[in-house]
Amino acid sequence: MAEDVLDDLRKRIAKTLDDLRRELAKVRTGRANPALLEACASTTTPDVALNNVSNVTVADPRLIVIKPWEKSMIR
Prior knowledge:
Elements: H1 2-24, H2 35-44, E1 54-60, E2 63-68
Antiparallel strand pairs: 1-2
């Protein structure tokens, strides 16, 4: 009984920490971060993530480079 409660608690804490890490990755720090694009892309094309149809890299602290694999994949 107590072990079941502890297992459930561990799973919930791990999920909370994963969510926190994901949200902290989006915080603006003055550097370009590909995680910033996830929120924007999910509102315009919820079925296709930008990183699933292109290479997303950070060239320098103020520049994100997006290279699509195929033009036909992007509207």
